[in-house]
Amino acid sequence: MPAVTTKFNEDDTLDMEMFEVNIKAQLDAGVSGIILGGTLGKASTLTGEEKQQLIRETVKMVAGAVPVIINIAEQTTKAAIEAARVAKECGARGLMILPPMRYKANDYETVTYVKAIANSTDLPIMIYNNPVDYGIEVTLDMFEEMLECKNIEAVKESTRDISNITRIKARFGDRLKVFTGVDTLGMESILMGADGWVAGLVCAFPAETCTIYELSKVGKMAEALEIYRWFLPILELDINPQLAQNIKMAEVATGIGTEHVRAPRLPLIGAERERVAKIISDGLAKRPNLPAYKGLSMA
């Protein structure tokens, strides 16, 4: 599932034309869902009206082919519950939930916050567990409490501790689906039993990401690894504070995005821009031919 970037025009309005170009590329590649308003989607800088527009128009674009999921990243429980209500009204088929923003809630507060949102809606929920970037880790004991809510079904596992996948699976089995949320651990996470991949560089390279995922899921490891080794230098652009700028540069290079970001983020300049541009251009120069990857089954 791509955590898609939000596209902007030069005047800072939403660029829905280029956004649709990107969504079409994702669907053509065979993604299984679209996630809006995550870290890459600039959840913290979008207005409520913009989020509604994104949900409604994305739902029209996908036309039922895959579920549209919106990230909930709010400062208050009241606002989060309202965001969940509006999401369903606009046609979203699932929610991804971050812990409270800005305030570093303790374990009890975080669990209470998530359960309040879950109990307010019947939409299925993925918990976004990213203590590296957001400062709050959802522990296994916290998940134990949260899973009293039947509609909490999955976790976007972004702790960067790959052994956490095994811990989650050992404790909860299939009750909690695990999606890796770190591009540089994508293939490794699938091999460790992750059910899916919420990806970032898929925004620029949808077919390559889907190929690695599909080959890995059916045990074609050598073929998947060859592509993954080519992809890794580009995937490392995802684990960086300027990941949105990096990935937007990659989207421009592959013809399915623009570089416009919302301030205070700004396009990269100077030596860092040159470094990222070289990684992308080197990757494109060696871009692999992809095998048929749709509809594969275990050998």
Automatic annotation (TrEMBL):
Pfam families named among the record's database cross-references: DHDPS
Keyword entries, A-Z: Lyase
Coiled-coil boundaries: none
Keyword Hydrolase: no
Superkingdom, natural source: Bacteria
Family to which this protein belongs: Belongs to the DapA family.
PANTHER family: N-ACETYLNEURAMINATE LYASE (PTHR42849:SF1)
Stated name of the protein: Dihydrodipicolinate synthase family protein
